[in-house]
Write a structure and sequence with these properties.
- This protein has 278 residues and is an alpha+beta fold.
- It has 3 domains: 10-136, no CATH class; 148-226, Multidrug-efflux Transporter Regulator, Chain: A, Domain 2, CATH 1.10.1660.10; 231-274.
- It is 35% helix and 26% strand.
- The strands form 5 sheets. It has a 3-stranded antiparallel β-sheet with strand order 1-2-3. Strands 4-5-6 form a 3-stranded antiparallel β-sheet. Strands 11-12-13 form a 3-stranded antiparallel β-sheet.
- β1 and β2 (18-24) form a beta hairpin.
- The longest helix has 31 residues, at 196-226.
- The termini are far apart.
- Mean pLDDT is 78; it is low at 133-154.
Length: 278
């Protein structure tokens, strides 16, 4: 089933007094099963008009949604906490088990106190496991959530998927979006949605950049052909060994030793050159 006026997530009420809500991972779009107590469902359903999603912050997963510009943490909503000095702790560290029996409210920082830690461990042992019930998921709607298709059948990608698809870095996508002032669509959490239209524009930019690089290489190659490297041959003295070196000097300033001569050989060369008529 799907909420009609509130959240758009698929959900299923179970016989055990629990409800499972299917929440897409904000980064991978993989569907996650989030368990709540059915008595909490009504306030969760009307809290947002978009989708509850699995997010990651400070290396920890959590379930959240957006109501207008306000971000809502699902665990805090269930426990009725709006005080920033209070913290909702997940006893089993399972971000997808949001039954109240698995949540506890403590003051920020109290989880470092020994007596609080003892209480947490005691309550943790009492949390009943979630029964793994084989259930048939509503495939059509689940697929819609999984790959985020729009009405025209185009696929929405996140930035990582878009970068992989284009064969470029994620930072390059950000740069192109800003440099070219591209018009973008955003999801409930304000992240850019890479639909077919935006992906088409990015591909055009990539092809143009590739063409510009090719033209630049051609010009550089042409310039090298028109201005070949000049070379010069000189005799230099090596003051460490008192030998003389016949070297080839390229236009880039690099030296290449052709032959080494001692002082006697240089005198012989000098006499030989003096007999040459130019």
């Amino acid at each position: 089933m799907k909420g009609e006026e509130g959240m758009i997530n698929e959900f299923r009420h179970l016989d055990e007094g629990y409800t499972v809500i299917y929440c897409p991972d904000a980064e991978t779009q993989q569907m996650k099963e989030v368990y709540i107590e059915t008595e909490d469902f009504s306030k969760i359903d009307i809290a947002i008009k978009g989708a509850w999603k699995s997010w990651k912050r400070d290396k920890k997963k959590f379930i959240g949604g957006v109501d207008g510009r306000k971000a809502i943490n699902l665990a805090r909503l269930i426990m009725g906490i709006d005080n920033k000095l209070k913290h909702v702790l997940n006893l089993t560290d399972n971000p997808y088990d949001l039954r109240k029996c698995n949540l506890i409210v403590i003051n920020c920082g109290d989880n470092q106190k020994s007596d609080v830690r003892s209480k947490i461990e005691e309550l943790k042992r009492k949390v009943p496991p979630i029964l793994k019930i084989q259930k048939e998921k509503p495939q059509a709607s689940m697929q819609q959530q999984l790959v985020l298709h729009n009405d025209e059948g185009g696929k929405y990608l996140n930035r990582a998927e878009a970068a992989e698809n284009l064969g470029i870095a994620k930072s390059t996508i950000n740069y192109w979006n800003k440099r070219n002032n591209l018009s973008v669509k955003r999801d409930e959490m304000g992240k850019v949605i890479y639909d077919d239209e935006l992906m088409g524009k990015l591909k055009e930019i990539k092809d143009t950049a590739k063409l510009i690089r090719k033209e630049k290489v051609k010009k550089e190659d042409s310039a090298k052909q028109q201005n070949p490297q000049k070379q010069d041959i000189r005799i230099l003295k090596d003051y460490k060994t008192n030998d003389y070196l016949l070297v080839e000097i390229e236009s880039a300033g690099t030296l290449s030793v052709i032959k080494k001569f001692n002082k006697k050989q240089i005198e012989q060369l000098r006499e030989s050159f003096s007999n040459i008529l130019l």
